Amino acid sequence: MRLRSLVVTAVLALPLLVTACGSSESDGGLGADDDVAAGSVFPVTVEHKYGETVVRAEPKRVVSVGVTEQDVLLQLGVVPVGVTEWYGEQPDATWPWAHDLLDGAHPEVLHTDNGLEFEKIAALDPDLIVGTNAGLTKKDYQLLSAIAPTITSDEGATDYFSPWQDQVLQIARGLGREADGQQVVDDLEADYAAVAAEHPEWADLTATFSQGAPYDGILYVYPPGLSTDFLTQLGFTMTTGFEDYAPAGSQAEISAENVGLIDADVVVFATEDEKGFDALQDFGTISSLPAVDDNRAVYTDGTLAGAVYFDTPLSRAYVLEKLTPMLEQAAAGEAPRAFPS
């Protein structure tokens, strides 16, 4: 797949109720009984890029029209009645780090190949629609708002993948659970800070984050500040010098003859399968890149790559767990030069 910011996204009307998932600390969820009962705070008003939305009562049937919002809803104890497929064709359009929080439910899976499926969304009879990571136009918002109160992203946010903290808080506001949303943000940031504190040597290292295989003769690499804070929050300094190859707000497009620009103390390649790993090794001078040759390159599997791209609290927690030992190996020059088995 080329760009994770390119959204590719059938619905049977299944009368699933939104439920509050009682959950333990181990599953990352927050039950509806935590803190003050959500129903006591309504009505709530949520400001966003297209104005403001009033949610008059605790939502019972929530539809996610964005590509990652299901993670946040589930972590806040809400099982959506509809979710949107992004990529990966995961069961219920929900990846492994979040799927257990469905608690056996099977929300309808919406697709956006031909735009938003307004009729199918309406058939789900939602009382709240969440689209903070959906690229909604003002017309989309107006049409969705005619179906149910609709929450979109903050003023000034990008169409997709605005800061995960902002998205968490925006969704939490619509659920009447802003304090819980802030707790999710604070806890995850503390977890990253703790790992960074355990590895002070990482603060002296540079890092590059790249997609894991070339596409049409181009390797897509992330310039500093674009989906790279999973590394900077651990202390790494992102490699610079290839920003001139990056269209505004997008990945740098690195051709085979320019791959030397991405070398760093540690390079993270979001490889997704063996075929992609092999194509990467054969691309330009990747195989002789110092970071690659000295076993300072990390290669992910498809699930870990998906977790990095998803960029939600649940996926970032998964990244922290799985990637930390791999970064330790790479920093020591001991990372396996192979696709993870």
From TrEMBL:
<dbReference type="InterPro" id="IPR002491">
    <property type="entry name" value="ABC_transptr_periplasmic_BD"/>
</dbReference>
<comment type="similarity">
    <text>Belongs to the bacterial solute-binding protein 8 family.</text>
</comment>
<dbReference type="InterPro" id="IPR051313">
    <property type="entry name" value="Bact_iron-sidero_bind"/>
</dbReference>
<dbReference type="Pfam" id="PF01497">
    <property type="entry name" value="Peripla_BP_2"/>
</dbReference>
<keyword id="KW-0732">Signal</keyword>
<feature type="domain" description="Fe/B12 periplasmic-binding">
    <location>
        <begin position="61"/>
        <end position="331"/>
    </location>
</feature>
<feature type="signal peptide">
    <location>
        <begin position="1"/>
        <end position="20"/>
    </location>
</feature>
<keyword id="KW-0813">Transport</keyword>
<protein>
    <submittedName>
        <fullName>Iron-siderophore ABC transporter substrate-binding protein</fullName>
    </submittedName>
</protein>
